[in-house]
């Protein structure tokens, strides 16, 4: 059994800026209660790039988190997308850290977690040695979905609740985002699903290529070709372009694809984005990669 606790930042100024009031004591007591009731696995989420956030405030938050000793820590960059999340229009953008400060916050947070005994998993997760995520990373069985890294091999993820997203072999579905409408649909015995997207074979190839890069820092085109045949051609063509444009040593040719040099792994999200056919078509809808 596993529980995930959103922390973001314990700093009072940061919490006030984002309208989220959650004390360290409250979080500590909730985690203690979960463990008392037999919930062995504890995940926590920390954000960088929040309004009013500094490296000092982030360091203090991470210090408190380490004292709680969760099994896993997710370190995400705050996504400021007021054109999608209307409530974010209430946030004063002048109080947001700049891009360089975001990078520094991310780097500092990762360094502290590693110094305190956590192992880096992929691009934004950390886990204690022996955790199933660390084992999956080492055995090449680590997976990633829209909720983060996982060891679950299931090809279906069903979302419950307002706006929840589900993943099926055929594609993605999302529940109604309005609480009242969602409740009415469920109470009437109907479907809560509001919209869906059916994956094409090209989508599936690109999804698997992106997952490989984000989980293993490599892209195995030979393996993809065994499963998808000629449908890997567009991805193979993108590999050739990336290899030609990449700085010397950043990408090493491997099994028709490449391996990302350890010194360049912090760019894995940007490398993976090159294979996302939707990203280029709608660049303004997405948040910063850092």
UniProtKB/TrEMBL annotation:
PANTHER family reported for this sequence: COPROPORPHYRINIGEN III OXIDASE, OXYGEN-INDEPENDENT COPROPORPHYRINOGEN III OXIDASE
Organism listed in the record: marine sediment metagenome
Any one GO biological process: protoporphyrinogen IX biosynthetic process
Gene Ontology cellular component list: cytoplasm
The protein's name: Radical SAM core domain-containing protein
GO MF term set: 4 iron, 4 sulfur cluster binding; coproporphyrinogen dehydrogenase activity
Keyword list, A-Z: Oxidoreductase
